[in-house]
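Supplementary Methods S3. Input chains for the assembly prediction are listed below.
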Amino acid sequence: MSRAETAAGVPAEAGATETETAVRAARPLWTLGLFRDELRTTFRRWRTLALLGVLAAVPVLVGIAVRIETGDGSSSGGGGGPAFVSQITNNGLFLVFTALAATLPFFLPMAVGVIAGDAVAGEAGAGTLRYLLVAPAGRTRLLLTKYATVMVFCLAATLVVAVSALAVGALLFPLGDPTTISGTRITFSEGLLRALLIALVVAASLLGVAALGLFVSTLTNSGIAAMATTVGLLITVQILDQIPQLHALHPYLFSHYWLSFADLMREPVYWDDLTKNLGLQALYAAVFGSAAWARFTTKDVTA
Amino acid sequence: MAPNETDDTTTAGEVDEVRAGRRRAARYVVPVTVMGVAAATIGLVPALADSGDPDLPEITAAQLIEKIAQSDVERLSGTVKITTDLGLPNLGGLESGLLSGAAGGGEDGEGSSADPSGRLTELASGTHTLRVAADGPDRQKLSLLEDAAEYSLIHNGKDVWGYDSASNEVYHSTVGEAGAADTARRGEQRPPATPKDFAEEALKAVDDTTSVKVDGTAQVAGRDAYRLVIEPKQSGSTVGAVSIAVDHKTGMPLKVTLTPSSGGSAVVDVGFTQVSFDRPDASTFAFTPPKGAKVAEDTEQDRRHGDFGGKPERGPKSEEDLAKGFDGLTMLGEGWNSVATFDTGSGSGLPTGEEAGGDLGGFLGSLGDLVKGDFGTGTVFSTRLVNALITDDGKVYVGTVTKDALVKAAEAGK
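Predicted structure tokens for the full assembly:
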């Protein structure tokens, strides 16, 4: 082992340096081009469009269900169902929050898991990964591009839900100055601003799953396996989060603070859980992002 | 391995393997380091942030109690964390149902979910985050933070509003026009569940069976505070000690911790995690029922409790306080070891069981321990703080005393 090392050490090191120089020499604009191509490929896929379509349909379903339920003038009381659902009848803006609260536990992260899981493994499975690597972009840069694309998808998916919910809410229910959950009243434009802020926080809440999916994606050459594993992990974490005996573990599960986005509807805003959520997502992104990098930059690409 | 390298020769492949293996291991150091740094940060930052006990001028216990009494904080806003662990069996929804049924039973109507008396009993178990704001005696707000919902109790002038955002229900009642006497009376009544309420309850119990001392200083919610410790002198009480952190500037209690004599975690721990003594924004107290919300009017003008509909049933009650709750009550013993006793008049044990019906009755019975004594036989229900003995002839003994002391008191009282 040590003999082989000494024998091969010098030329190998030289080879590595050479390649890295080539990578560094690549023009920065090239990355943008790569990113643009990635985005185009991802968002042109039927799979992506179907996922976004399903996400857009959720607020429509919720809106119609609430409308039918309360059609006879009765208010939907009882406090059951997803968060904010009882306020929808009086203010369509609340459909945005309800739709996000309804999709965040499963639909949104599942969609992100599919896209992230497919990111590297899908290319490997289709045999296109090595062609991507032939281009002098470098693996680190390719991986960053992939992660950036998944991040854009997180934002796009969240905005699709929010915009669809706002449209449905405006069509089916009256709009007006919303009452925060603390009981104070804010103007409609501030309500819209908070809705946008909530959408951004929800999108950021998905970054942990995205990084996890990307890491899983670098482990296998089968896109389906990576997607299934990511979604499986998502479900497992969600279940673990429900078991009270494991409460010591809960603050470290990426889904634990997801619903904290509702704290933005308090007056004054309660930041504790929001910052915990964002910190946790950043931690997951750092850990699994660097693990994906460690794996992807050293992996044998045979397909 | 670099992208454009090939591995067609065996030797080169083997060499590559070794090198790649080493490099792979080296690269995995990065995620592991990130995780390690994160773990260290989570572990160390609270320890580093705890900058030790602040240096404050010496003060005697009597002076400190005087300081609490003279404290007249009119304006504040802050976040309170309250943790109660009475050692009640975890019954989930059933428990809160029973508790709110016990406290809110007197209210007419079908019981709006925005009714304060029902809601505040939720504080009796678990950990809750509250927000409090006050601006003088006429404007107070207390909010119970829930998952994606909030229950707010707002007192503004002569209106008292309760708003439950989860069900979009509103409770409304009015208090009499703020006359001079009324204002004075209500001035004493702060929103319940703040450390101040708990501190007042604890200080009420101070008599010659109690040792009170100042035990150093502490930092609570970023403010320097003295720590006042109240301990029963007698043995036999379930109360180990009550520790009150008192703000050195305003004299306001910032944190109250009640530890049981049996050891273990605190029975009640209530304290500010963030506090400000600036005037809260006026819009905080403004409330108009949202359009379409169901409003339950409480027309009972002369409510016994002016603003917040009574304090919730909760932990550190002094014996006198317990006594107020029942009629025909006699007290046995003195100080911390006193035991309240009353006759249910049913002539048989476990009235709760019979009222609640067979299954639940049997279930409640199984939670207690059977004891024998001069009083005949009875069942002792234990929590970490309060023990209750219900004898078979329908007498009830309740106290914050240990089971043995309770049985002894019952025998003596016979």
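The radius of gyration of chain B is 27 Å. Chain B has three domains: 1-50, 61-203+260-298, 319-413.
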